[in-house]
Amino acid sequence: MPELTPVKVRGKKGKEWAALMRRRKRLMSEDQPRDVYSSKRRKIDEKIQPHLEALPTELLQSIFVFSREVNLPLASLRLSAKLSDRHLYMHFCFQAFCKGDYFLLDPDATYTTQDLADIPVMRKIAESSISDINFKLSEYLASTHEPAFQSDVLKRKWLTWSFYREYLQKAFEKSKQDYENQQTSKSVDQGDGPMHERASKRQSIHRRMTIEPQPLDFEADDLIVRKEPEYRWMRLLPNCYIPEKLFHIPFAHDQLMFLKTVIRAGAIVDWYGSAAGERAEVALEHSIGEGIPDATRLLLHDAIGIPWQGRYLEQAYREKARRPKRNFEPIISYLKESRERSEQDNV
């Protein structure tokens, strides 16, 4: 019997295969696994958003501000989109670096709990103390959560040098206005009762600024670290740490200006709780090798606390011999000064 020639029906198999692939792709995009060849369609529950992400943006931003949890946007992309607002960032800067009446006080002066009883932000200290205790304001603030909050804000990626300069300008304007209001306000010379006592006590503890705030001249700055008392409006509390991002190499001028400013404001390096110290050592070797005197001078500051090692000076001499056209004399001079300070400390 002769063999029959097979008849091929064109288009039928292709349509079935395309329909199967479309159905399979649709099923794979859904959450629950299922048999792609099953003809029964299963009911799938809709995705339920977490309660925090489902809140309105205005309410979520209020929670973000009052909780002072600067890491909240890192929880999810949806939260990051809702909380990425420049006004919120500026609010956090004021809340961290320029908040409360204690920024008008002298942190190095000694106060009593009774003196601070009428200052709102310090009232809890007086109420919690049994006796009239003398203490330094800086020592008390260092024991609170404020330094850690300042450190968290400094770590944020959105806190760039340009944004920090914008904050410093607004903080200066606010501090300047407070100073002018204090100079024009009249003291209470007569009267009795609680209002007179409260006003007299607030004037007697020297909570007014005695030095007029001065703006920072960023363009003419020579990167020399100085500590001026009139920069109280940009003061960082003890135990506020320099973020690791300021030690990333290669260095940029904005990065060096940011590093110098936070050092002058009182920040230090956390050698035990972060990798900032190790990054600072790597950055120092890089600045010596590339012949960057400004970065070398900053990294040798006592606030960073890099232990002195003779290999830094040896590296500078090697680079000077290898590249005679580049001036390494300032770097060698800074390293010698650092060596002398280290020897004096060890005596």
Word description of this protein:
This is F-box domain-containing protein. Residues 178-204 are annotated as: Disordered. The protein is mainly alpha-helical and 347 residues long. It folds into two domains: 85-208, no CATH class; 220-229 and 236-347, no CATH class. Helix content is 49%, strand content 2%. It is built from 14 helices and two strands. It has a two-stranded antiparallel ribbon. The longest helix is centred in the middle third of the chain and has 24 residues, at 161-184. The chain is flat and about 110 Å long.
Provide a count of the helices. 14
Count of β-strands: 2
Q: State the helical fraction.
A: 40-55%
Shape type:
flat
- Summarize the biggest pleated sheet: 2 strands, antiparallel
Number of domains: 2
Structural class determined from secondary elements? mainly alpha
Across the major sheet, the strand order is 1-2
